[in-house]
Amino acid sequence: MHPASSIAAPSERPQPRSVRDLFFSFTWLALQGFGGVLAIVQREMVEKKRWLTADEFLEDWAVAQVLPGPNVINLALMIGDRHFGLRGAIAAVAGMLTVPLGVILVLALLYAHFAGNPQVAGALRGMGAVAGGLIAATGIKLIPALRRHPLGFGVCLGIVALVFSAIAFARIPLGWVLLVVGGVACVWTWKRIRA
């Protein structure tokens, strides 16, 4: 798990009150995540519930991104485990999956029935633009946390530009970009922290 998971949260920081609170919080989070959940997770966990600081969110999200499987499920697993161990991890993941699975099944049935409708196809294309805007807005919100990064703000922005260029323009697969650029950034940061 994440290194910060071994650090106890200060008693004055808001925390999930129970396993049930974790389940319903992640259910609510998942139900809001149409078109992309990154912006919703950041707003709910950092700004509204304050279970994570902006720096913790950035670190945990980075770990969740490089682990196999859906990144938001990985994040839910880490947060649940941090607060209530295995029971919390199971509750958080169940919250992310149970009710949204039912919604998806109903939507799949509706889509199968109305897929040929041109208005439905147009609406779905429009939602793609909204999802892109949500992801861009969340990325911009996370920039201030980079100012406190051990590598320095300029280097972090350079890494962001390199990753964006590698994926968007050079069409290098995400896995290779994460392995190479992420690996170099991790080792470089580790050396800078130890120095």
Would you mind describing this structure in some detail?
- It is globular and about 60 Å long.
- The protein has 195 residues and is mainly alpha-helical.
- The chain is built from seven helices and no strands.
- Helix 3 (54-66) packs across helix 4 and helix 6 packs antiparallel against helix 7.
- It has two domains: 3-143, no CATH class; 149-195.
- It has helices spanning 19-32, 38-48, 54-66, 71-114, 118-146, 153-168, 174-194.
- The protein starts with 18 loop residues before the first helix and ends with a helix.
Task: For this entry, give a set of tags.
globular, 2 domains, 195 residues, disordered N terminus, mainly alpha
Question: What's the quick description here?
Answer:
It contains 7 helices and no strands. The chain has helices spanning 19-32, 38-48, 54-66, 71-114, 118-146, 153-168, 174-194.
| Arithmetic mean of pLDDT | 84
How many independent structural domains? 2
**End-to-end separation:** 24 Å
From the spread of the alpha carbons, the general shape counts as globular
The total beta strand count reads: 0
DSSP helix fraction: over 70%
Largest sheet: none
String of helices and strands: HHHHHHH
**Which structural category do the helix and sheet elements fall into?**
mainly alpha
Q: In oligomeric terms, what are we looking at?
A: single chain
Q: Which regions contain 5 or more consecutive residues with pLDDT less than 50?
A: 1-10
Please state roughly what percent of the residues sit in beta strands, choosing from under 5%, 5-15%, 15-25%, 25-35%, 35-45% or over 45%. under 5%
Based on CA atoms alone, the radius of gyration comes out at 19 Å
Total count of helical runs of at least 4 residues: 7
